[in-house]
Amino acid sequence: MRAQEITFLKLVQGDKQFQVPLYQRTYSWGADQLQRLWEDIGELVDQHLAGESAAPHFLGSVVLAPGQIQAGGVQRWLVVDGQQRLTTLMLAFTALRDHLKDTGDARGVDRVHRQILVNEFHEGVDHYRLLPTQADRDAYTACVQSRADAGGGDNIGAAYRFFRGALAQSHEAGEERWAATVESVLKDLLSIVEITAEPGDNVYRIFESINNTGVGLSQSDLLRNYVFMLLPKRGERIYQELWLPMQQSLGPKNLELLVWLDLVVRGHSKTKQSDIYREQQKRLQPLAGDEEALQQEIEQLAGRARRFLRIIEPAREQSPALRTALERLAAWGGQTHYPLALHLLDLLDAGRTTPDDAARALGYVESYLVRRLICQTPTAGLNRIFMEAPKELETDRPAAESVRRFLSGRRRRWPSDEELREAARAKPFYWSGRPPQRSFILRRLEESYGASEPVDFAKGSLSVEHVLPQRPAPAWFDLLAEETEPNQTPQELHDLLVHTLGNLTLTGDNSKLSNHPFERKQQILDSSALRMNLEISSAPRWGKAQILERADRLAGRATELWPGPIGGVKPTGEESPGWVELRAALVAMPSGTWTTYGDVAELIGSHPVPVGAYLGANTSVIGAYRVLTVEGKISPSFRWADGSDRPPPQELLASEGVRFDSLGRAHPSQRLSAAELATLLGRDVTQPPAHDPLPEGEDAEAAERFRAQLQENWPAAHPGVVAVLDFWRRQGGHVTYGRHEETSCFPMLDLGTSRQPQLVWPVGVYPVSGTVEVVFQYLKTRSPFDDTEQRRELLNRLNKIDGIDLPEAKLELRPSFPVGVFAEHGDEICEVLDWFVGVAALDLARRN
């Protein structure tokens, strides 16, 4: 084998083809990996535009083996290892080419297409510079060919859509040379080690050896080894007195995090955690030979370790005010605030600030994070803001004032009081942040009532409850009908209100509350120890007016709890974050899907009318034609811009795979709800608690409740469902049930190994609403169904059954079919489940 470091352009140029062999898994990069790569690319682009010298970013290795060469054909290379990053970069180039097309750069389109993506003078499969496995091939070639179905519901399509969205969002910043710089970075500043096998090498053995390596050294391990190599005389004593206690108190992961934070607090704000060793080595190299200076460096690091422990374990902090501030940020979760918090503790221990001032500074950090979450401010760049803070803070002011001034900077987006009040009324708070963060905000709001006997939240098991239920009974819709606007249905009004802050509270009685009428909820909430629940129980009714009034009251409390930026005025001339989110949602939609103006309005906390007006005035927005009326029709007001050569929207949607009936209505199974759009954006969309499977074995009482509800609501389906569940048990599975009023049912299969527990379930059955959800969203994280091809096979097998019509574009979501299918097709469903169990069992045997 031979190896050389090479740029991506040099790797792929020429009449050659990279062929992914069948033993390779299908493309599997997800949003986190794509985001990390894009951030690395973005840093290189910024450095290039600023005129700074940018070192190439090392992506890793690609191991290639020579394939067969036919006369007049291309040189084929088998991709033994590295197909994930190779496929990712090719998809980035397809998205860049299509972005250049949208911006009118015809020469750029031609250059990228010919130079990177295709072998111009070859046809058939030889035309493609990269040829993925059979399972991924159609989705990949759709992107290269710019077909209407490019960007489908699988991982290939998701990566293409990710880069389309990232390019469009960054382009909006307005830098004229930006797209050209991205092209240069992708071609010339991404470094890959090309490892080439010789003819006759055992390619599969090479693949096995690469993917069965031991545990490598961490960045902190490498740094430790380097430092103590420079300490031949003092090393043993310093290790025992300083390094070992630090390592034992923090643990491996936090020690590595500390070594990175040490660099960031010193002003190296662009250092990535993967570059810790290299950057620390560069910093310490001049001290080689001076053991006294190196000892001082380790003493400083050990001091920072003690301060870092106060951040991750706030009980260690002596000052009550500062301890409370640290506890709140620890409860908030995440590591975003660590650089600034560590810098403040550095100042405190150096005598340059006071505990109370540091506590006020951290209070502003909490306020900044909370307000951004409530207002659903995009999180892009948030980590960088806090990494830049230590070197950017003004040093001639008190720490709290400096932090507030820094976070109030125009480009740092600290929402004003006005924005907070608007968001409390309209934004779907239930989809903001992570569940513990939503609970944290509601808990702090409850504490603001100053009850004489406050609730012990540490002991109470409280969760977020919707007062207006997510799945309301008909009586709730009768109530909402009294407050609808012209041409608005009660369901549409419900969707705009249900997840907003004014409709949410904390309770330990979710199972009792469920979707009961408000009168029954009043009785339960009236016995609550929480002041906010007593306030709700005193309302005469619970509809739009009451929800908005409560949102205003809570917003008033929030502005007192969490101060806003200096000036406190909503910025003028800035685009609403809602439109940024709208564009991100539309570009995230897989081809072959559609949504409605109401769904988009619910997602961004707006109203269908302004959403329609915005899209009507901005038809060039990617995916604007996919937003239809609630009936699934093209809006009469939607028109392409003058001079556009694009086909009519319905024709374009049909070419992507959307089906229309004779009245021009899109098929409802292909519609993406607001919750599904939020899921595609990576939001933590908490489902109704009744829909969460419980790995507790079978509960006879719950099973009886499930059967009774099924018999009452869907009697024709009852025998078929019971027979299918009995079949599932005979296959070695078990059944679990939800604990709430609609007693959902989940056929579970234990696929755990001695090293890793794992439960998997193909569907959830809901006996009142009469739906059967196919849980692709969960399956995609569980072997063997993390393989797109296996999920696609499950979808295809189900779709052969009359009455089931699951769109392929929802392979990452939770599409459903009617429970009535069980009435006549139970045997066919059993055949699909038998296949499901067989595939899972083979995978379990392989993993064991």
TrEMBL record:
<feature type="domain" description="Methylated-DNA-[protein]-cysteine S-methyltransferase DNA binding">
    <location>
        <begin position="584"/>
        <end position="658"/>
    </location>
</feature>
<dbReference type="InterPro" id="IPR014048">
    <property type="entry name" value="MethylDNA_cys_MeTrfase_DNA-bd"/>
</dbReference>
<dbReference type="InterPro" id="IPR011089">
    <property type="entry name" value="GmrSD_C"/>
</dbReference>
<dbReference type="InterPro" id="IPR004919">
    <property type="entry name" value="GmrSD_N"/>
</dbReference>
<feature type="domain" description="GmrSD restriction endonucleases C-terminal">
    <location>
        <begin position="414"/>
        <end position="555"/>
    </location>
</feature>
<protein>
    <submittedName>
        <fullName>DUF262 domain-containing protein</fullName>
    </submittedName>
</protein>
<dbReference type="Pfam" id="PF07510">
    <property type="entry name" value="GmrSD_C"/>
</dbReference>
<dbReference type="Pfam" id="PF03235">
    <property type="entry name" value="GmrSD_N"/>
</dbReference>
<dbReference type="InterPro" id="IPR036217">
    <property type="entry name" value="MethylDNA_cys_MeTrfase_DNAb"/>
</dbReference>
<feature type="domain" description="GmrSD restriction endonucleases N-terminal">
    <location>
        <begin position="10"/>
        <end position="228"/>
    </location>
</feature>
<dbReference type="Pfam" id="PF01035">
    <property type="entry name" value="DNA_binding_1"/>
</dbReference>
<dbReference type="InterPro" id="IPR036388">
    <property type="entry name" value="WH-like_DNA-bd_sf"/>
</dbReference>
<keyword id="KW-0227">DNA damage</keyword>
